[in-house]
Amino acid sequence: MSDSVPELTIPSLVNQIGRTRLVPIQRLAANTRGNQIFGKLEGDNPAGSVKDRPAANMIVQAEARGTIKPGDTLLEATSGNTGIALAMVAATMGYKLKLLMPDNMTGERKSLMTAYGAELILVTEEQGMEYARDQAAAMAARGEGVVLDQFANPDNWGAHYSSTGPEIWEATQGKITHFVSSMGTTGTIMGVSRYLKEKNPDIQIIGVQPEDGSSIPGIRRWPEAYLPAIYEPARVDRIIDVNQAEAEDMARSLARVEGILSGVSSGGALLAALKMLPELDNAVMVTIVCDRGDRYLSSGLFPAN
């Protein structure tokens, strides 16, 4: 009688999202009156960004509620990372996906989405994300698919309440004093704020957005009519505006000085954290490093010389 081989129980790709590394910013934030800054490397996720978390949670929860089933077509407006993450999760879980996005996003982002099997529907840079969102809603109204709607879906911030926040609290042994995050859909900052404030109401939640006239992929200053429905201003203690050129310089410094290759929104978040240091003593700050910089190479962010 042959011995049976026990079945391996290895979590699926979707179930391995999260548990990303938290690393110290060692030189850019050195000698700052006892303050420490740590970056949470969300590029560790399977599809390479912080958006893996809400992408998986929105699809998993919708399926659990019976709103969608494998084989259905999903629709979403995206500026990049959410689309890549949704494409990966959709491929893993057996869904069709149509993504609407402005045509000025990098070629790497477009190629990554289509590599996972998603269909891209491009709008012009001038039409922007607002138009893409309207078009996704119109397609859903015509019965062409189901919109997950990251901008109004509580499963977006719920992913960060159940994973990102607890991971940060655990990694800092509850010593975190400031959380700094760029704001796009605002899911990250809303979910982490909820969790950390429950643990310690004194923790300061800092949002980062572009200055007027600055264009930073992944973060926005939304017109009032398009402000994400999940956003609750009271959950953010302070908002810091950052300049596009300075955020790009900081992204390059992160790579060259700290060995962390990231995008511009991550540079903006660190820039905001560094701006606060003269006001603080013995702070423990955590910033979100949203994604990996390799999806920005064609943009010229990291010139060859």
Distinctive features:
alpha/beta, Rossmann fold, amino-acid biosynthesis, 2 domains, 8 helices, 6-stranded mixed sheet, CysM, 305 residues
- The number of helical elements comes to 8
- Total domain units: 2
CATH topology of the largest domain: Rossmann fold
Mean pLDDT: 95
Rounded to the nearest angstrom, the radius of gyration is 19 Å
- Unreliable spans are none
Q: Judging from the principal axes of the Cα atoms, what is the shape?
A: globular
Regarding CATH, which class of the largest domain?
Answer: Alpha Beta
Bin the strand percentage.
Answer: 15-25%
The CATH architecture of the largest domain comes to 3-Layer(aba) Sandwich
Task: Spell the H/E element sequence.
Answer: EEHEHEHEHEHEHEEHHE
Number of strands: 10
Gap between N and C termini: 67 Å
**Could you describe the largest sheet, including whether it forms a barrel?**
6 strands, mixed
Q: Give the % helix.
A: 25-40%
Major sheet strand order:
1-2-10-7-8-9
Structural class: alpha/beta
Outline the fold blueprint.
Elements: E1 22-24, E2 36-41, H1 52-65, E3 73-77, H2 81-93, E4 96-102, H3 107-115, E5 119-123, H4 128-141, E6 146-147, H5 154-171, E7 178-182, H6 187-199, E8 204-210, E9 238-242, H7 244-258, H8 264-276, E10 284-289
Give a nutshell description of this structure:
With 305 residues, the chain is of the alpha/beta class.
Would you give an account of this structure?
By secondary structure, the protein is α/β, with parallel strands linked by helices. The chain has 2 domains: 13-44 and 164-296, Rossmann fold; 51-147, Rossmann fold (3-Layer(aba) Sandwich), CATH 3.40.50. The protein contains 8 helices and 10 strands. The protein has helices spanning 52-65, 81-93, 107-115, 128-141, 154-171, 187-199, 244-258, 264-276; strands spanning 22-24, 36-41, 73-77, 96-102, 119-123, 146-147, 178-182, 204-210, 238-242, 284-289. The chain has a 6-stranded mixed sheet. A 4-stranded parallel sheet has the order 5-4-3-6, sandwiched between helices. Helix 2 (81-93) runs parallel beside helix 3 (107-115), helix 5 packs across helix 6 and helix 7 packs across helix 8 (264-276). The protein is globular, with a radius of gyration of 19 Å. It comes from Granulosicoccus antarcticus IMCC3135. One of its GO terms (biological process) is cysteine biosynthetic process from serine. Its EC number is 2.5.1.47.
